[in-house]
């Protein structure tokens, strides 16, 4: 993997066909630069982050697909108006993928209010459903060889396609967590692809909020830094 | 938990008996402030971070406890000079705790070179062993009621005692990941305590490296930010 650790993504990515073009004010800027340009990333996904959805409301957003409502109600067996991690795992497995439980917990952590118990209501469920639908579309578009797996180059292109120019060193660091330990080249199934995508998108969007002048860097207080990062950690038990 | 979400930790902590005293230049600074004052945190722990230990060396550091060497050799069954995650889990279970495998993977990610396969050599093993010994000492010192569990106040005091004044909102965000989903007050066993401690210590130390003037805030490029954070994420599969 070490030949992978140079800056070729950086230089390539400046010219990648899928890269969003830079506005004039960035054209002389080699920064992490166009991480913040784009076809706007999945909106429901975006709105789901950071407790903007309240799990205290039990009503679905207007225009929610009836299948989504039916699925939620089917797994909300005690009619409590919210479902737990295992119920969410079952609810998503038929429509999307049999996500492992820690991916499910990661989704819940990103979409629910952190002060609420580890359960989600209709709004979060609809947001997660829409978000996964969008990631599936991206996965299928960039899995060019139809292998059902995304390789590192396809992942880079996929992230680039939704507006995130991620340096090769950063991608390598992230992908190093998805290997089988052998050091062999990593290929991501949909499960890991969604995790990587949401980590990159979520952290980048949080950084953008602080990089108000779009310089590619931001001044953060210790509290801000910690509060930005911790939502992306999962508990390991 | 919401009464927990105000700033009382912040204000309390400024006067907590276990708080390291502020040097003069900080005495008018209400910042996230004394996250970077000390008793210096566990040194072996510190040196373990960010690939400073090479898994390519198979020799133990001078003065390594013979028990540590014996334990490593016992579990390096193929005599390869390195052990994998399951072997590490077994090697640590007798001396410390039967850590769950994702905690073990987290330890490995923090101590090994990210470009290396998911295995650790003698140096990393000795560093992890020392690090866990230090965390166990801290756990026992702050588990004042000898419950075998650390509650949020004891965790705050423990982190304070090793020099990290963590805002209540940040601690709450972190602890929200360790609940059983019921929203009840969280208590941490040694396993989760080590995770929380290493997350806080590791992220804070990374932030300190960028906060060279010790102002409580730091300017980060996008690449720096992402590279600081990703080592603390685990893969969810």
Fold and architecture overview:
- Two copies of one chain form a homodimer.
- In chain A, 47% of the residues lie in helices and 2% in strands.
- The first copy, chain A, has 237 residues and is an all-alpha fold.
- In chain A, helix 3 crosses helix 4 and helix 4 crosses helix 5.
- Chain A is globular and about 45 Å long.
- Chain A starts with 7 loop residues before the first helix and ends in an 8-residue tail after the last helix.
- Chains A, B: Keywords: Calcium.
- Chains A, B: Residues 1-16, 24-33 have a biased composition (Polar residues).
- Chains A, B: GO terms for molecular function: calcium ion binding.
- Chains A, B: This is EF-hand domain-containing protein.
- Chains A, B: InterPro entries: CML48/49/50, EF-hand-dom_pair, EF_Hand_1_Ca_BS, EF_hand_dom.
Keywords:
mainly alpha, disordered N terminus, 237 residues, homodimer, 10 helices, globular
Question: Roughly what percent helix of chain A?
Answer: 40-55%
Radius of gyration of chain A from CA coordinates: 18 Å
The oligomeric status of these chains comes to homodimer
Structural class of chain A: mainly alpha
Largest interface, and how many residues on either side?
A-B, 64 and 64 residues
The helix count of chain A comes to 10
> Could you spell the SSE succession of chain A in H and E letters?
HHHHHHHHHEH
Distance between the termini of chain A: 30 Å
Low confidence ranges of chain A:
1-40, 42-57
Shape annotation of chain A = globular
Q: Care to count the β-strands of chain A?
A: 1
Residue-averaged pLDDT of chain A, rounded?
76
GO molecular function (chains A, B): calcium ion binding
Protein name (chains A, B): EF-hand domain-containing protein
Organism (chains A, B): Lupinus luteus (European yellow lupine)
Pfam family, one (chains A, B): EF-hand_6
């Amino acid at each position: 993997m070490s030949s992978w650790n140079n800056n070729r993504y950086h230089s390539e990515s400046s010219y990648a066909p899928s890269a969003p073009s830079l506005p004039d004010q960035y054209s002389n800027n080699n920064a992490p630069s166009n991480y913040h340009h784009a076809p706007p990333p999945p909106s429901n996904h975006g709105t789901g982050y950071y407790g903007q959805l309240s799990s205290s409301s039990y009503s679905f957003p207007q225009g929610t697909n009836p299948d989504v409502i039916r699925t939620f109600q089917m797994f909300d067996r005690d009619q409590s108006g919210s479902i737990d991690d295992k119920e969410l795992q079952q609810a998503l497995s038929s429509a999307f993928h049999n996500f492992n439980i820690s991916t499910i917990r990661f989704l819940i952590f990103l979409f629910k209010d952190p002060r609420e118990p580890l359960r989600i209501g209709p709004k979060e469920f609809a947001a997660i459903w829409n978000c996964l639908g969008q990631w599936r579309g991206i996965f299928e578009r960039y899995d060019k060889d139809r292998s059902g797996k995304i390789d590192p180059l396809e992942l880079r292109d996929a992230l680039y396609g939704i507006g995130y120019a991620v340096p090769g060193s950063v991608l390598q660091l992230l992908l190093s967590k998805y290997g089988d330990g052998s050091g062999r080249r990593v290929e991501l199934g949909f499960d890991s692809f969604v995790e990587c995508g949401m980590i990159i998108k979520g952290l980048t969007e949080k950084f953008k909020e602080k990089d108000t002048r779009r310089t590619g860097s931001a001044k953060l207080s210790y509290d801000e830094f910690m509060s930005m990062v911790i939502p992306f950690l999962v508990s390991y038990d």
